[in-house]
Amino acid sequence: MVFGSLYYLTVFLPPVLLVHWALQALARRWPVAATFAANVWLLAASIAACVLSDLPGLPWFLGCAVATDLIARAIAAAGPRRPRLRKTLLAFALAGDLALLCLFKYGGTLSRWIDALAGCALVPAAELAVPLGLSFWVFRSMSYVWDVARGVHPPARTPIDLLCYLALFPIFVSGPIVRWADVAGSFRARPFSAALAASGWRRLLVGLAKKILVANQLAPMADAVWAVAEGGGGMSPGMAALGVASYSLQLYFDFSGYSDMAIGLGRLLGFDFRENFLWPYASASIREFWRRWHVSLSTWFRDYLYIPLGGSRRGTARACLNGIVVFTLCGAWHGTGWMFPLWGLWHGLLLCLERLFGPRRAKGEPPPRRSSAAATFRFFAAHAYAIAAIAFGWILFRSATPAAAGAVLRSLAGLAAPDPASRALWLECTPVFETALAAGAALCIPIVPALRRALRRALPEWLVWTAESVAATALGAVALLFLAAGTRQSFLYFQF
């Protein structure tokens, strides 16, 4: 069962929501018992989703979850008077999580490297099937134990609450990386309201539309361009630029669409997940981009790696080194091969350069007004720099080899002779693709919030609410028609 599939939306989800809403209604009279029953029901639904999607990976998840609960409780029981024991238990838990992550994601690659260095088969190169959502529930497990050890929050009241948090089906596969401190209260009480459910329903449908109507329609062009590049061929600069733009927008609408669906489902279940994308393509620097892109991941690396390494407290040089290390590891987290760490290194180096040479403002100082022509030019030049740097990074991220990335870059610069196979790329420029490209380019910047604010100033709130609901329902209906026609593709972040 694939998240966002027709079966998921029409067969699995409705009974899960109906039973959960019934239990939430009972919570008004029996709050403790009904909420506990709702948590058990969500845990059962999440385990069922895992069984339907990835049964072989379930024992690994359950083993990690049980170990996380036991170690976190042992850390809390050790108390502040035994710091060495707390640190030992924390190190053991983190080492176990990292070992699990490395075993499945990098075990085969590491064994091949060892064999290549030794010149013989020392380690069997066993390629293990990666459990569904491994990267995300391992990071949630690590943050939970770490925060218990730091005293940010106590352990979960019951193992059921923790298991439900780690297995929660809206965020199980690809995040966001929700932290326990943000949702702990929701496991004690989740008041149901029609307004929250309506908001969640609209968000779910909008996320589905972003995935099906934009990301999926841009994918064939991006795949076709990179297929030519990975075959060693070149193409015209315009076609290469079209491929890079398609992939940049596909990745954004694919993952932000998934995040919207997860946030919407969370609201339907009574949870309030934080936003994961804050219009990243409106950024004027790479530093701003990472404050807006995949916020749950960037803040996770900031809080659990960058700050423990020293952050920016030990001078500019150390801050730059820490940033490069963190982003290189962030790239490696996404997958094996050299291109992911290289993508992370690219962003780490840019952040270092921005720290050294970028404009600086005193803390709390507002940004300068764009009242002059020079200020306006600087504003748009900064955005152009950010978009170009981000797009270069996506070329590294999408390419399987440096040769493929080089072929795309040479084509962009007009230095590659067009391959005969590249002539067929124009066949991907269908009306559906062109519409999706235009919609993606327009909607990747905060036009919709600005339009919503303007409508709320001019129209009654109920009318705006009705218009939003009608628009979201229409988009969702069209997306479901595309799904029924068999145009489904897996979310890109499933592979990470």
Summarize the structure.
The protein is mainly α and 496 residues long.
Brief descriptors of the model:
496 residues, mainly alpha, 19 helices, globular
Describe the structure.
The chain has helices at residues 6-26, 31-54, 58-78, 83-118, 134-150, 159-167, 169-172, 180-183, 194-230, 237-268, 286-292, 295-306, 316-334, 339-357, 373-398, 402-412, 431-443, 447-458, 461-484. The protein is mostly helical and 496 residues long. The chain has two domains: 6-192, no CATH class; 197-285 and 373-495, no CATH class. The longest helix has 37 residues, at 194-230.
Oligomer: single chain
The gyration radius over C-alpha positions equals 24 Å
How much of the sequence lies in strands comes to under 5%
The strand count comes to: 0
The rough form would be described as globular
What is the typical, i.e. mean, pLDDT?
Answer: 89
The major β-sheet equals: none
Proportion in helices: over 70%
Order of helices and strands: HHHHHHHHHHHHHHHHHHH
Distance between the termini: 18 Å
Going by helix content, strand content and strand pairing, the class is: mainly alpha
- Which regions have little confidence, pLDDT < 50, spanning 5+ residues? none
- The total of helices stands at 19
Number of domains: 2
